[in-house]
Amino acid sequence: MGIPADREAELLARVPTGLLIDGQWRDASGGRTFDVEDPATGKILLSIADASTEDGALAMDAAVAAQEDWARTAPRERGEILRRAFELVTERTEDFALLMTLEMGKPLAEARGEVAYGAEFLRWFSEEAVRISGRYSTSPDGKSRLLVNKKPVGPCLLITPWNFPLAMATRKIAPAVAAGCTMVLKPAKLTPLTSQLFAAVMMEAGLPAGVLNVVSTTSAGDVTGPILKDSRLRKVSFTGSTPVGQGLIRDAAENVLRTSMELGGNAPFIVFEDADLEKAVDGAMAAKLRNMGEACTAANRFIVQDTVADEFAEKFAARVGAMTTGRGTEEDTKVGPLIDGKSRDKVHALVIEAVDGGAVALVGGEPVDGPGYFYRPTVLKNVAADARILKEEIFGPVAPIVTFSTEDEAVALANNTEYGLVSYVFTKDLNRGLRIGEKLESGMLGLNAGVVSNAAAPFGGVKQSGLGREGGAEGIEEYLYTQYIGIADPFAG
Fold it and tell me: Within 10 A of 171 (CB to CB), how many other CB atoms are there?
């Protein structure tokens, strides 16, 4: 049994549809709006305010005006606001989960998991707010004292993606709040509703006006471009594709902005012959099909030792083939729709090219007929080494399998990409796992684990997968700068 229509309508009626600027929900200049669509049905969920250049400037003004007082707010108070927000989000798990399912498509069970994950950033950084520290020391020559202090970088531009509407917002907003920074948040136009509801919760938790401003828009460049050129901006944090991130880095260079970039991925999933294949398949299901494969951490290439490749492929395909596709609000749904028609067409084109190049679809390999943007979960075997599907981020429920013979060959295949976000390795040999981990060019490694994301851990990649880290003790440092004060020797004359 699915979610009643009146429950969906009641929730949508409580979602703010304006722009949040200086603590007030307001219409966009000129009254512009845009529609937010349910990817499972193609139907419109809500129409919300569509920010313009003028609205972005007002949001930036509000963030700048609030910065000084917010930076001086006691760390404990900032932490308590985050803690209250954690409690409010947790209490409203069903609301946030349903809203994400409606606008993004993921099954309710996965959406509830994202609420727990996203809320944890609020709790984690509520505790980190009071851990910001510096040092006082004597200089080596004894003639002065060294005072080192950490200060908030200042107003930040936060740009979030559509695939994890709550967690990507909390992962940026929570450390900014903890550090004492004000913000302009630009959510993805495909899934802005969760950010709208979360912003309302932050205000309910006691966040002062102007600290968080939200400008949903269909004209990202018109809104964020002038903000990036504003000399008062101090930082930009972006999660999304590498090409867009590269453009933002170029723009950020003009004002030498602090940047955090969590960009694309092409994660290898390596299975050695000594691995527990049942656990490897469990890990593969989590690493590939979580969020319909629409995750930068999704396993993109399955690199399996040739002696166990057939057995792994058979077991994996059996599990994948049993996955039920459908609207995320239905109880038996395991795989929801892709975000839009363009994404589904791209996934199918990659599959068709791979099959034309000799790959065999053990299961799936085609779109699902009917409304919405569904694609059948797919496992491909015998994929050619030069197939485009091994080079590009798939962002869909498709798993291409290639084989290797030696450890060195596995490492070479895994590192043969410009990306370096996360890797997965399954083996019973701990020394091998650690050895491979040191050889792999990635910011994160799942060793006998298909999920690595954790609020207490530093999330981020190397190469063209980005700059900086989110989460963990490192996450708050992205929103702080170091100030040194040299003090004359207090014992001198």
Answer: 28
What counts of helices (H) and strands (E) characterise the chain? 15, 22
Give the residue from 348, 294, 287 showing the smallest Cα distance to 39.
294
> Of these residues, 296, 330, 470, 478, which one is catalytic?
296
Rounded to whole angstroms, how far apart are CA atoms 44 and 4? 17
196 neighbors 224 (Cβ within 8 angstroms): no
d(CA 271, CA 385): 17
pLDDT at residue 2 in the model? 81
Q: Which residue has the tokens 């410009």?
A: 418
What is the DSSP track for 121-142? HHHHHHHHGGG---EEEE-TTS
**SS3 for 383-443, per residue?**
CCCCCHHHCCCCCCCEEEEEEECCHHHHHHHHHCCCEECEEEEECCCHHHHHHHHHHCCCC
Give the per-residue pLDDT at 1. 66
Rounded to 5 degrees, what angle do the CA atoms 9, 10, 16 make?
Answer: 95
Residue 9's contacts (CB-CB under 8 Å, 6 or more residues apart) are none
Catalytic residue flag (residue 262) = yes
> Residue 428 pLDDT > 90, yes or no?
yes
Task: Give 491's strand partners.
Answer: none
Examine the pLDDT at 379 and tell me if it is beyond 80.
Answer: yes
Confidence of residue 362 (pLDDT cuts 50, 70, 90): very high
Per-residue pLDDT for 108 more than 70?
yes
Span between the terminal Cα atoms of the chain, in Å: 82
d(CA 167, CA 170): 5
pLDDT tens figures, 145-195: 999 999 999 999 999 999 999 999 999 999 999 999 999 999 999 999 999
- What DSSP element (H or E) covers 303? strand 299-305
Q: What is the per-residue burial (b if ≥16 Cβ within 10 Å, else e) of 24-51? A: ebeebbeeebbebbbbbbeeebbebbbb
pLDDT (tens digit, 9 = 90+) per residue, 187-213? Answer: 999 999 999 999 999 999 999 999 999
Q: What pLDDT does residue 312 have?
A: 98
**What is residue 462's three-state secondary structure?**
strand
- Cβ proximity of 416 and 441 under 8 Å: no
Q: Mean pLDDT across the stretch 56-60? A: 98
Catalytic residue among 114, 262, 470, 477: 262
